[in-house]
């Protein structure tokens, strides 16, 4: 594809984001944001580790929910991957992964309450859809020749295990290990809706102004992510998987009558539940669409577009900090630490912190989305740049960046950015729970008002919007002929 096509797409997305800036709310409304930021900084350099039992329980529950949720998600994902050629399976997987973990948690909270099954299912269900998609792509890339050479009497299961799965095993393990890191972030975030993980204790510490405890929780979380390869060794994984269900806690008992009522009555649209039929359904839906869905969609798309472009700017600005073509060993180590902190901090967690510092507006959400996703893409692009050989007389400084390295990594960068587009959309919608007027804001409001039928319709709209953006991104990648296989997607997921 000619370079002009890439330039047109880049320019179009940038101009669209610039127009969106005119309609956004980026005001800092807190009285003294620098004072609050200073208190947080002091909490990070002087963390309060005095309550070891409290901090240990938060991390233990975070790890337990991650292992159980990711374990169930990977098992279900492998089964779905084997059937992924069927269109109904692909559609089902696209739908369940398009709904954010926090939305799933809000749904199950209304039926199962504050029970561990709520947090486990909130992680396992969307992860199953993601695992199915990537596992299927990895298996499809395997060499078909070994399977053809098997004797005809070999069963399908034997052929699958000894040919495709044996070839794909290293890539399956690598992807699953990365999703475990993602699972730790998701486990921390579901604490914001009541699960006893790190997010729950972090929100409480912020509310009480205990910045030393906030700093301790954040530092322990970063240490947990950074040391993942040290303690999550393959030999120990079976032990972790067996022990984790017993570390989830008990929670409140499930009232099965509430479960039955929620799925058979509460989520049924009010006009149908009241016997008004289709005549009452259309006005009900029209009111929901005009009053909540369309404003939520508008703000979600607005914020997503701004965050997408800012993510790209940050990624292309920051990738040199870990590239051997621009930094030495010491500078590269510092750059790695910076990008690890950025990509290890969940967008929801970072947006929550920034909202406490700056007040309610779109600014905390945009910055949180850009920092997290920019850190991920910058890390991957930096690693890609290290594989590029430069001629001996290559220029240095800004000329090396502009004429030698950036043009050669720009294609993979765009592919990664388009892959993150749908993920940024999912996160943008869920940030509404924090008070930003995206779709998540109206979902959370409907749940607070016990209008679960309205909440479910808005969640369905969110899922369809995410699927539409994913389809658009895939078509753009195909139009620009940007190669982006499943083997590169795991690290970007």
TrEMBL record:
The gene is phnE_4. This is Phosphate-import permease protein PhnE. It comes from Halomonas chromatireducens. PANTHER family: ABC TRANSPORT SYSTEM PERMEASE PROTEIN P69, PHOSPHONATES TRANSPORT SYSTEM PERMEASE PROTEIN. SUPFAM superfamilies: MetI-like (SSF161098). The chain crosses the membrane at residues 58-82, 102-125, 205-225, 237-256, 297-322, 423-443, 455-473. It comes from the Bacteria. One of its GO terms (cellular component) is plasma membrane. It is found in: Cell membrane.
């Amino acid at each position: 594809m000619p370079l002009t096509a890439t330039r047109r797409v880049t320019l179009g997305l940038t101009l669209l984001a610039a127009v969106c800036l005119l309609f956004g709310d980026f005001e800092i409304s807190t009285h003294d944001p620098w004072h609050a930021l200073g208190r947080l900084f002091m909490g990070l350099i002087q963390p309060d580790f005095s309550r070891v039992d409290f901090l240990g329980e938060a991390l233990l529950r975070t790890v337990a929910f991650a292992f159980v949720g990711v374990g169930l998600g990977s098992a279900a994902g492998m089964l779905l991957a084997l059937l992924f050629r069927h269109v109904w399976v692909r559609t089902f997987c696209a739908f369940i992964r398009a709904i954010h973990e926090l939305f799933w948690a809000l749904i199950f909270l209304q039926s199962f309450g504050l029970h561990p099954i709520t947090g486990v299912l909130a992680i396992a269900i969307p992860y199953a859809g993601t695992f199915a998609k990537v596992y299927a792509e990895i298996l499809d890339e395997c060499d078909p020749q070994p399977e053809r050479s098997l004797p005809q009497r070999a069963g399908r299961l034997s052929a699958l295990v000894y040919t495709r799965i044996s070839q794909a095993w290293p890539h399956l393990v690598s992807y699953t290990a990365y999703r475990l890191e993602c699972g730790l972030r998701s486990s921390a975030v579901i604490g914001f809706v009541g699960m006893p993980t790190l997010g729950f204790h972090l929100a409480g510490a912020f509310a009480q102004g205990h910045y030393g405890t906030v700093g301790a929780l954040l530092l322990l979380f970063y240490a947990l992510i950074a040391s993942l390869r040290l303690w999550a060794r393959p030999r120990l994984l079976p032990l972790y998987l067996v022990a984790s269900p017993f570390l989830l806690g008990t929670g409140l008992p499930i009232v099965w009558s509430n479960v039955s009522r929620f799925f058979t009555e509460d989520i049924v649209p009010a006009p149908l539940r009241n016997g008004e039929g289709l005549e009452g359904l259309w006005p009900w839906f029209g009111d929901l669409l005009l009053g909540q869905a369309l404003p939520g969609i508008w703000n979600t798309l607005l914020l997503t577009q701004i965050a997408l472009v800012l993510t790209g700017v940050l990624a292309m600005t920051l990738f040199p900090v870990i590239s051997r073509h621009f930094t030495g060993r010491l500078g590269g180590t510092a750059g790695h630490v910076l990008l690890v902190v950025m990509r290890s901090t969940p967008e929801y967690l970072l947006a929550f912190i920034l909202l406490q510092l700056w007040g309610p507006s779109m600014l905390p959400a945009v910055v949180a989305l850009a920092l997290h996703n920019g850190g991920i893409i910058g890390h991957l692009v930096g690693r890609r740049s290290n594989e590029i050989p430069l001629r001996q007389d290559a220029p240095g400084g800004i000329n090396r960046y502009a004429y030698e390295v950036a043009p050669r990594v720009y294609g993979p960068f765009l592919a990664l950015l388009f892959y993150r587009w749908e993920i940024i959309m999912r996160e943008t919608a869920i940030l509404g729970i924090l008070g930003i007027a995206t779709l998540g804001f109206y979902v959370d409001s409907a749940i607070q008002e016990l209008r679960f039928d309205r909440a479910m319709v808005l969640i369905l709209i969110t899922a369809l919007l995410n699927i539409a953006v994913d389809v658009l991104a895939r078509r753009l990648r195909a139009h620009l002929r940007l190669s982006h296989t499943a083997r590169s997607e795991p690290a970007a997921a």
